[in-house]
Amino acid sequence: MKRKLLQLAFVTMCNAALYGQTNITVGDGTGSGTFGPIASWYESSATESIYTGNEIGVSGEVTKLAYQKASGNSTTEPQVKIYMKQTSQAVIGQADYSIGATAFAGYTLVYEGTMPNNSTTGWMEVTLQTPFTVSAAQNLAILVVGSTCIESGRPQYRYTTSQGNKMSAGYDDGSIGCGGNNPWTSASVMEPVWERPNVRLAFGTLSAEGFTTANSLLYTEGGKLHFKSAVEVSSIAVYDVLGREVYSLKGINSTDVVLSALTAQNQVLFVKVTDAYNRTLTLKTVY
């Protein structure tokens, strides 16, 4: 049956951005190790990881970053430099490689200092000195360079094992047990691994990109009102011209919704849709 596109003339967004912090966690694995993002068996280490735009799912400004500590009773705080860049590269690959000067120049140093280590478990979070803008249309590469060796009780961090393709790679100075003198450089050889560190990104603002009329559709089919979007919808509320709520649906968690219990009465309606990241889109139609 031919779909009838309804009038989308009345559109309101939550400005161009949302206020308040939104945390996005990528990785839910429970395995742990001392090799990434910081290999504190060594004086110098590095971990490069890719987190895809689909995994992150939102666009906006990252203001904080955290890694999930699993164990370790040392309270020594490792010295780190954290870099970020947007990339079209979706996987690390299988072969050893060097990042190289040109690719490294594309990185932005977002944090230089110590990684918190004041608890045996939990998210160890740093506030970025240089907030970094992320677009869900691209992938995010994160490079962590460590320069602290911890003799005992070193922190272990949780990771998720990649499926199909390696998404992370590591470097160490080769002198296990401290005392190494081979600091990481962009020419250092990185070894791809299956274990990618779980990461939590805190967005100070979220862009409205990805939840607009450009990739959302309100239409009738089979006598019912439908809504389809490129992003996951959490709830829908429908109002009449007097502002009275005539229909609502919560806990949707889908990109394709049928307002099956809404009765057609040939009236002007305002359909307010909220996505999984609390962004809203309001559409005006007659149904």
Characterize the structure shown.
The protein has 2 domains: 4-15 and 208-286, Immunoglobulin-like; 18-205. It is elongated and about 75 Å long. Strand 16 and strand 17 form a beta hairpin. The longest helix has 6 residues, at 100-105. Residues 1-19 have low confidence and may be disordered. The protein contains 2 helices and 20 strands. The relative contact order is 0.26. The strands form 3 sheets. Strands 2, 3, 5, 9, 11, 14 and 15 form a 7-stranded antiparallel β-sheet that branches. A 7-stranded antiparallel β-sheet has the order 7-13-12-4-10-6-8. Strands 1, 16, 17, 18, 19 and 20 form a 6-stranded antiparallel β-sheet that branches. It is mostly beta strands.
Describe the SSE topology.
Elements: E1 4-5, E2 17-26, E3 31-33, E4 45-51, H1 53-56, E5 60-71, E6 79-87, E7 97-98, H2 100-105, E8 108-114, E9 122-134, E10 139-146, E11 156-161, E12 168-172, E13 189-193, E14 195-197, E15 199-207, E16 216-221, E17 224-239, E18 245-259, E19 268-275, E20 280-286
Antiparallel strand pairs: 1-16, 2-15, 3-11, 4-10, 4-12, 5-9, 5-11, 5-15, 6-8, 6-10, 7-13, 11-14, 12-13, 16-17, 17-18, 17-19, 19-20
List keywords for this structure.
20 strands; mainly beta; 2 domains; disordered N terminus; 7-stranded antiparallel beta sheet; 3% helix; 2 helices
Using only CA atoms, what is the Rg?
Answer: 23 Å
Decide which structural class fits the backbone: mainly beta
- Which percent range fits the helix content? under 10%
Q: How much is the average pLDDT?
A: 88
The poorly predicted ranges are 1-19
Largest sheet: number of strands, sense, barrel closure = 7 strands, antiparallel
Shape: elongated
β-strand amount: over 45%
Distance between the termini: 18 Å
User: What is the ordering of alpha helices and beta strands?
Assistant: EEEEHEEEHEEEEEEEEEEEEE
